[in-house]
Structure formats: C-alpha cells, structure tokens
Write a structure and sequence with these properties.
2 helices, globular, alpha+beta, single chain, about 35% helix, 2 strands, binds zinc ion, two-stranded antiparallel ribbon, about 80 residues
Length: about 80
C-alpha cells in the first residue's frame, strides 16, 4: 500500500485535511492515495481514514470499494 507523500493539492475526501498531521512534516501536504470505488469513482483518502474504512469493511464483511460508494453518497446527501 503506497501513499503519495507531499502531493500537490492533496486533500482527504473524508476528513478534508490537506496538511500532514505529523509534527515533523507540517509544511507538507497530507499523504493520500486515490482509491477507485465499485462504481468507478475516484476517492482520495489519507492513511488514517483508509485504515478506518478498511477495518470497518473487514468487520462488516463488506467490500471496501462498496463502502467508498456508500460513504460518498452519504456525504452528498449531507452536502459535506
Ligand atoms: Zn482523512
């Protein structure tokens, strides 16, 4: 699992963070990775959000890619 470090315009689509939370790298952007959802949408997530969703997917035995779509639709409904 490789996350991109110091990517220009990096932004986690879940927590909306753009800055690296690590105190040694505050001037860098947040490390993110683009995931493709089941419906083919591109979702950019930071490491901690990815870990959370992955753990949730495993616990609920739901495909991680389906979770991305579900969450995207919820965010859209709530206009977040
Ligand atoms: Zn995040």
């Amino acid at each position: 699992m490789t996350f991109k470090y110091n990517k220009i315009n990096a932004k986690c689509m879940w927590c909306k963070r753009t800055q690296n939370p690590h105190p040694d790298f505050l001037k860098e952007t947040i490390p993110t990775k683009i995931f493709e959802s089941k419906k083919g949408r591109m979702v950019e997530l930071c490491f901690s959000c990815f870990e959370q969703e992955k753990a949730f997917a495993e616990k609920q035995k739901i495909d991680f890619k389906i979770i991305l779509d579900t969450k995207l639709e919820v965010l859209k409904l709530l206009k977040l």
